[in-house]
Write a structure and sequence with these properties.
alpha+beta; Nuclear Transport Factor 2, Chain: A; 2 domains; 8 helices; DUF3887 domain-containing protein; DUF3887
Length: 202
């Protein structure tokens, strides 16, 4: 990513000028290309924000201040713009969530809601298989239904990288209660953690 603000601004300006010129020089009906150019402006603008955040951090600005400016928590700001160093290697850590993690979480939740316990446990890594049986998973889901009624729907998943895994958080709605499904995936798409959290816990 561009860490210097000026190069990032120059790219943003160039992409903006490309869009403006294209609306004059190209067919006005070529909306797919215009949308793609607009998206490139959005990505370039995010690079400008990233460069400014990195410059602010080098100047001693706290993640709390950055988060306040972005309208998010300091942790959310760090997860988006931080550069964590792996204490095991001294190298920058991979902060990119597993591709398709939100879709994976959705499919696991749909399998739980359909009582396909073996499909869910079949996705477990070895540690999860040793710690949570198919019967125990079914019993935990039944306990949720006993407390809050039938499962109704789930919302969009948020995914974030944490070390060697990707953690997804997905809102769940039951007849008489709301929860969050926190599912952790390894890079091979196996499940390393599965929790159903109350709103207070999540």
């Amino acid at each position: 990513m561009r860490e210097s603000v000026m190069p990032a601004l120059q790219v943003l300006r160039a992409r903006t000028e490309e869009l403006l010129a294209s609306r004059v020089l190209e067919s006005r009906d070529d909306w797919p290309r215009s949308v793609a150019r607009a998206l490139s402006i959005q990505l370039a603008a995010d690079d400008v924000v990233r460069a400014v955040v990195q410059q602010a951090r080098r100047s001693g600005v706290t993640w709390q201040t950055v988060g306040d400016a972005l309208g998010v928590t300091r942790q959310a700001a760090f997860q988006r713009y931080g550069k964590p160093i792996d204490p095991r290697t001294g190298e920058p850590m991979n902060t990119t969530p597993l591709s398709g993690a939100a879709e994976l979480a959705s499919s696991v939740i749909n399998e739980l809601a359909s009582a396909h316990w073996s499909r869910v446990t079949g996705r477990f890594d070895s540690t999860m298989r040793d710690g949570l049986s198919e019967d125990a998973l079914a019993a935990a889901w039944a306990q949720l239904i006993g407390q809050s009624g039938a499962f109704e729907s789930h919302g969009d998943s948020e995914a974030a990288r944490a070390g060697d895994v990707t953690i997804t958080n997905t809102p769940l709605s039951f007849e008489a209660g709301d929860y969050t499904a926190r599912i952790t995936f390894r890079d091979d798409q196996t499940i390393a953690g599965l929790y159903i959290l109350s709103p207070e816990a999540s």
